[in-house]
Specification:
CATH architecture: 2-Layer Sandwich
Number of strands: 7
Strand content: 25-35%
Shape: globular
Strand order of the largest sheet: 1-3-4-6-5
CATH superfamily: Histidine kinase-like ATPase, C-terminal domain
Order of helices and strands: EEHEEHHEEE
Helix content: 10-25%
Radius of gyration: 15 Å
Distance between the termini: 22 Å
Length: 146
């Protein structure tokens, strides 16, 4: 994702207690690419995007934080609905499908997604996926031990 932007920095911080996770590789890619690209898209030029990975014995946690335009409180309840876009996006392009795909991908992993956001302050998405997740999705399961 870093090579997709000349104007933003992505600060990756891994915090690894366990190196075992079982996730669908394609779904994981959808989750991370959508959250990171949104953080870049809705942040001012030159902004910093923080990406934390916390791997514990029982779960993997992905946290993506930006200092962008934020999401109005009134829109936060509908974020994961298809074609919904926040009222403050203006002319920033998008389909309103990215977060719906993220939510479905998280659900297929029996995980959770949370959002904290404040207009003109920024947004943090936190995804928590159980580590012992083999069999949670129908295809492309991969159990990584590294």
């Amino acid at each position: 994702m870093q090579i997709s932007t000349n104007t933003h920095a992505i600060a990756f911080s891994p915090h690894v207690q366990s190196t075992y996770a079982c996730m669908d590789e394609k779904l994981r890619r959808h989750i991370l690419s959508n959250l990171l690209s949104n953080a870049i898209k809705y942040s001012p030029s030159g902004g910093l995007v923080k990406f934390d990975l916390i791997c514990k014995q029982e779960e993997a946690i992905f946290s993506v934080q930006d200092r962008g335009i934020g999401i109005p409180r009134a829109d936060q309840g509908n974020l994961f609905e298809s074609f919904h876009r926040a009222t403050n996006v203006g002319t920033i392009s998008g389909t309103g499908l990215g977060l719906a795909i993220v939510k479905k991908s998280v659900d297929l992993h029996r995980g959770k997604i949370a959002v904290e956001s404040e207009v003109e302050i920024g947004t943090t998405f936190t995804v928590t996926i159980p580590s012992q997740n083999c069999g949670a999705t129908n295809e492309n399961n991969s159990c990584d031990r590294r």
